[in-house]
Amino acid sequence: MKNVMNKKLLLSSIATSIVLSITSQAQAQDSVFVGHLADMSGPTAFVGKNYADGVRDSLAYINAHGGINGTKLESETIDYAYKVPQAIASYKKWKTRKKMVAMQGQGNGRYRSINFLCCT
Q1: pTM (predicted TM-score)
Q2: Which of 47, 56, 65, 95 has the greatest number of beta carbons closer than 10 A?
Q3: Percent residues over pLDDT 90 in the chain
Q4: What is the phi/psi pair of residue 41, to 5°?
Q5: Do residues 52 and 5 make contact, with C-beta atoms less than 8 angstroms apart?
Q6: Spans of all domains in the chain
Q7: Residue range 51-94, pLDDT digits in tens
Q8: CATH, domain 2-119, list 3.40.50.11030, 3.90.226.10, 3.40.50.2300, 3.30.43.10
């Protein structure tokens, strides 16, 4: 079972890397940035790894089918290991440098902290 999961993760990562490298090389005028905070290590990795695979697969699928109304999704995945300070730092970097329009991930601690940053 673990080998199947590792192979799935590897294949998902490769496919996503290919899609993202093509997208970034083309630098389509119509692209937006989506940040992806993942728990691929740390105390919630047992859920986070599969969730991260799903997010990456979804982003790749959307781009492979023309994006959203022709707008491609550029993304970056960061394994923040359920460390809230690292999640906050990633959010701030993406918001200021990459002009992030959305962020994907799961977890209460990170989102409560980021919600406080962006909505107060």
Answers
A1: 0.67
A2: 56
A3: 27
A4: -140, 175
A5: no
A6: 2-119
A7: 899 999 999 999 999 998 899 999 999 998 888 888 888 888 99
A8: 3.40.50.2300
